Amino acid sequence: MLDWERWASATGIGFVVAAALGFLIVPDPPSVDEGSEFVLNFFSVNDSDVLWQSFFYGLASVFLLWFAGTLAGALRRAENDQAGRLPAIIVSSAAAATALFLLGVIAWGAIASGVEVMDQGVAYGLYQLGNYAFVITDFPAAVFVWAVSLGIARTVFLPTSVAWVGGVVGLLLLVNAGGRLLADESTFAAGGTTGTIIFIFFMFWVLVTSIFLVQRVPAGRRMPES
Question: How is the chain split into domains, by residue range?
């Protein structure tokens, strides 16, 4: 019989694998400072790669949502409080982050799908929409990381080091959003150096959290009824 709780706990690992594959397919998108002609040419040349990236990012979103639900359930059992706020915050913030991220994926995927007949200005507008959707994702993502980290600190259902690292990662996500929106620096945008590094930090935190959550589940234990 499959050990469903272990598989559910490992969905964080699945998220990291799918997101990493998606990123590596198109690791160097146009800078937000590039003009509309360059952006249209990029998507014309890389349309197939962008669509494959969209697929893997969509798959990553499935894993992240399932992982958030699994974390919320584990925290609810650790707190023994069915009315606790943190599990609800974990699920809702992960859902909001995923929705915003997928909005960016949809915008870029739409360019790749219709690049042969798309007006240059429309393509550029969709590209900027995708960029800002990716940046705004940092806000609910920070809430997600902090809610999980606070739950870990309160219950110690995972090592407290995960909570400390999560606190830093959440702060970095907000710094990234501020750098892009307030300072208007392209390095904080999707594909920018700083934005990429912070995205890697987020994936690292999810990976470590998922590994510890898998190790916490006794072998052969079935998923309890919620």
Answer: 4-216
Give just the sign of the alpha carbon dihedral 173, 62, 203, 34. Answer: negative
CA pair distance 145, 221, nearest whole angstrom:
26
pLDDT at 14: 97
Task: Say whether pLDDT at 83 is over 60.
Answer: no
pLDDT at 226 over 60: no
Q: Provide the 8-state DSSP code for 157.
A: S
Classify the phi-psi angles of 217: left when phi > 0, otherwise alpha if psi is within -120 to 50, otherwise beta. beta
Alpha helices, H only, the chain: 4-9, 11-25, 36-45, 47-79, 85-114, 120-136, 138-155, 160-181, 193-216
Q: Calculate the alpha carbon distances from 177 to 33, 38, 48, 132, 221 in Å.
A: 17, 25, 29, 9, 40
Q: Of 136, 164, 138, 139, give the one whose Cα is nearest residue 149.
A: 164
Compute, in degrees rounded to 10, the torsion defined by CA atoms 150, 151, 153, 159. Answer: -120
Contact between 55 and 106 under an 8 Å Cβ cutoff? The reply is no
DSSP single-letter state for residue 217: S
SS3 166: helix
Amino acid at 194: T
